[in-house]
TrEMBL record:
Presence of keyword Cytoplasm: no
InterPro entries registered for this protein in UniProt: Homeodomain-like_sf, Transposase_8
Source organism per UniProt: Polymorphospora rubra
Coiled coil (residue ranges): 67-101
GO BP terms in the entry: DNA transposition
Any one GO molecular function term: DNA binding
Keyword terms of this UniProt record: Coiled coil
Protein name: Transposase
Length: 152
């Protein structure tokens, strides 16, 4: 037979408390109330109360450690890094597929489209590296028949 205490402890260990609840419970613990009273009143474990008290000391600078604000910033940064890594993987895969599917002559249209979308286009598909067919020696600039996004 399961005891009521075990069931209550298991349900409390999985619960996340809101920051306002944490602040209210830490305020309740200040006027000299024992941890046992708080455990009974707030229905949370004693270890949770000790953890919150320690975090409050860290946040107020009384003990060294990672503050709640720094922890939140770190979590947000890690989440953003994961998003950017996913985005990069998608773009790398798209580039792979583009190489396989699009014939070389049709890549100029893709480059123009990317430039129109505001993406930085450093190299215009190789059309500016060598004079394209039909250009004559001695002509200043280059002529790539409108395919190059940098033509002027």
């Amino acid at each position: 037979m399961e005891s009521g205490w075990l069931t209550r402890q298991a349900s409390h260990s999985l619960r996340r408390h809101s920051p306002s609840f944490v602040v209210r419970s830490s305020i309740c613990s200040r006027p000299g109330r024992s941890v046992a009273e708080l455990v009974r009143d707030l229905e949370i474990s004693d270890q949770t109360i000790y953890n919150w008290r320690r975090q409050e000391l860290i946040d107020t600078g009384q003990v060294s450690g990672v503050t709640s604000a720094d922890q939140a910033e770190l979590v947000a940064a890690r989440r953003r890094i994961a998003e950017l890594e996913t985005e990069l993987a998608v773009h790398r895969r798209a580039a792979e597929l583009l190489k396989e599917v699009v014939p070389p002559k049709d890549r100029y249209a893709v480059i123009k489209r990317m430039a129109a979308e505001g993406l930085p286009v450093e190299v215009c598909g190789g059309c500016c590296r060598y004079p394209p067919p039909g250009t004559t020696p001695g002509v200043t600039g280059h002529r790539c028949h409108g395919r190059c996004v940098t033509s002027g």
